[in-house]
Structures are given as C-alpha cells and as structure tokens.
Design goal:
This protein is α+β, with helices and mostly antiparallel strands. The protein has 2 domains: about 1-45, no CATH class; about 50-110, CPE0013-like fold. It has 2 helices and 10 strands, in the order βββαββββαβββ. Bound molecules: iron/sulfur cluster. Iron/sulfur cluster binds near residues 9, 14 and 32.
Amino acid sequence: MKREMICICCPMGCRMTVEGEPGAYTVTGNTCPRGKAYAIAEMTAPERMVTSSVAVVGGNYKTVSVKTASPIPKGKIFEALRLLDGVVLTAPVKEGQTVVEDILGTGVAFVATREVSVAR
Ligand code: SF4
C-alpha cells in the first residue's frame, strides 16, 4: 500500500509518501517527527479539529465561533456538527466555554473560541 499526502501540522506542508502495511509503515518526505506521526494516524485513525459557529442572544455579536477542544475521528465530523444545530448561547460567553460536552462519546467538547460581552 502506498499513499501520498500533505502534512497539515504546520505551514510548511511537507509532501509525504507512506508505504507499507498497518503496524509497519514507512514515511518519507516529512521534515520532522510530527509529520510521521500525522501520516501514520491518517493511515490508521484519521482525526480532525472541527470548527463552526452558534447563535448568541443578548451579546455584542450575534454568533460565536466554536471548535473542538482537540481533534475527533474524521468519520464523526458531520454527526458532531449536527449537535450544534439549534444551540443558542446567552451572553456573556467566555473564551473556552464549553458549548457541547463529550461529543458523541469522544470525551472532546465543542468550546467557544472568543468572548462575547453583553450588548449595551
Ligand atoms: S512534517 Fe513537520 S515540518 Fe513538515 S509540515 Fe509536518 S509538521 Fe511541518
């Protein structure tokens, strides 16, 4: 098995080649160990950070951006986003505030990425 991929762990975007079988992958093209770890994770259990936004009432902004506190399995992204449907926060919102706990049993939460103050 051979697969080409681009590392998304930093802006350098190294082009990598992964060859081999589960448990015995060889990675080339990576500039640092993070690239190798990313490549092997992509071959075995790919994960992604997920970002979106939710509505806020009574705040100086009508919405607030949210993200997963850490990556979640790639296959759960769309189901995770559905958990945000209809979520409405009330200002004030703190940066890092939990918006949805334990997404689909992953132990990862959606958190607010910025503060929203009460509207004056
Ligand atoms: S392999 Fe290392 S240097 Fe290259 S993109 Fe990934 S993190 Fe950046």
